[in-house]
Amino acid sequence: MLGGLKVSNRENFTSRVYTQLREALMAGRFWPGQRLRIGEMALAMGVSQTPVREAIMQLVREGGLEIRSSQAITVANLSLSRYKELREVRLLLEGLATEKATPLITSSDLVRLEQTHRELIAAEKSGDFEAATLTNFHFHFLIYRASQMSDLVSILESVWLRNGPLLKFLYPYAPPTYPGAHQHLTLIEALRRRDPAAARQAVQDDMIEGGAGLVALMGKMETGEVALVDAPDGGMHLSFRTPQKRKAAVRETQG
Asked: For residue 67, which phi and psi values (nearest 5 degrees)?
């Protein structure tokens, strides 16, 4: 679960650990509610526990991680209503960032976007779901950073910090689907035409259409049809319950 995290030089360790963990949260590398252990993370990243602890405390302050006790650090887990609230914010701000990026994005940026989208599709087809979520993150933020609005990008990163772990639910449980063409392709074409309104609409449609399965899945989680449970490898997975299992779980909860 932590194999891709590595700090390899003598720069400011806390800053580097923080940057890697922050991007990992935004890109959906951790499960919502997943417990993180400082010792394991320090070992995986090749640093002492001190910079890991300091980075974690910074991420707690930003809302990406939570401390439930002195020993329990977990990834933030959003309810469906909270997800929808953040999605309203994202619709406005990601639409704005895309609109502002449209006249500024370069031809080399467009080439990178096309390549990144191809990598996303290839990752989905091969079942490399972690690569798919990471690639999708890079696709979107390549556009947002092209807006040259650094404060807006910082706000969006803060929102994705809390929203990102939910991306773990997408594959293979609720993969993005579209009634027509993939909205990434529609977005790239709008950017190429320098059409800010169309680009804004495409990124908003991508969020709504591509996230429809996620919303439905989260609704089932809130009714008990689906449960997030610990996996033997230290990660987590979703368990789809029969009506009988749901009733048993309710009885167990009620004591």
From this structure: -110, 115
Q: Residue 172, preceding bond cis, omega within 30 degrees?
A: yes
Q: Are residues 108 and 135 in the same domain?
A: yes
Same domain, 144 and 228: no
What CATH number has the domain bearing residue 53? 1.10.10.10
For the segment 203-232, what is each residue's pLDDT rounded down to a tens digit? 999 999 999 999 999 999 999 999 999 888
Q: Residue 201 phi/psi, 5° resolution? A: -65, -40
Pair (42, 149) in one structural domain: no
Is there a contact between 225 and 112 (Cβ–Cβ < 8 Å)? no
Can you give the pTM of this predicted structure?
A: 0.85
> What is the number of domains present in the chain?
3
For the chain, what is the largest distance between any 2 Cα atoms, rounded to a whole number of angstroms? Answer: 62
Q: Do 207 and 146 share a structural domain?
A: yes
Residues 4, 195: Cα–Cα separation, whole Å:
38
